[in-house]
Amino acid sequence: MSHFIDNSNFSVDGVLADFPSTASSPISCLAHNNKRTRPGKDRALITTHNGASGIYVGSTNLAYQQAFEDGADVIDCSIQMSIDGVAFCLESADLMGHTTTVKTFMPQATLVPVIQKSNRIFSFDLSWSNIQSLKLELTSLLFASGMTRNLAVKNEGNFMTRNEFLNFAKNSTISGILINIRGIGEESMGL
């Protein structure tokens, strides 16, 4: 079914979604799967990307809780490290892409050419208490256009340490976890 959307900012003849058309068909097929049934020949294994990162800020307690409530089988955590050795879940070590209050720490911005082409604020340059003081921000594929999603909760949720993530998974009926560890300049490695 196609819909025409027209307003003063843009016009679309079709369906407007965060997912490209190649991914939207499988996502719609999975939307009506029975929750909490073991994957088999008739059911796909549902794995998250930073929890329910389209609804809440990715890699937060709220995103993982929503993914669990939505029936995810496997939840994932990309591990980042603080300067004082605290392992926590966040998609990237670059804090400027996931938080709004990094201006406080701009004097600590560094250039790591294998990661970014400009000075950035990285998790490995801040203490865990400094990282926890940052205000999280829900990002979107449409972020560059100025369009945001789920404005009511765009700054909600808390960072989760690796141990909090593991305890959450252990105390739920999640079938499995995926731990993603990246070194500087390396591709991701799922464990």
Overview of the molecule:
With about 190 residues, this protein is of the alpha+beta class. The chain has a single domain, classed as Phosphatidylinositol (PI) phosphodiesterase (TIM Barrel). About 15% of the residues lie in helices and about 15% in strands. The protein has four helices and six strands. The strands form two sheets. Strands 4-3-5-6 form a four-stranded mixed sheet. It has a two-stranded antiparallel sheet with strand order 1-2. Strand 5 and strand 6 form a beta hairpin. The N and C termini lie far apart (about 40 Å). About 25% of the residues are buried. The C terminus is likely disordered.
Quick structural overview:
The protein has 191 residues and is α+β, with helices and mostly antiparallel strands. The protein contains four helices and six strands; from the N terminus they run ββααββααββ.
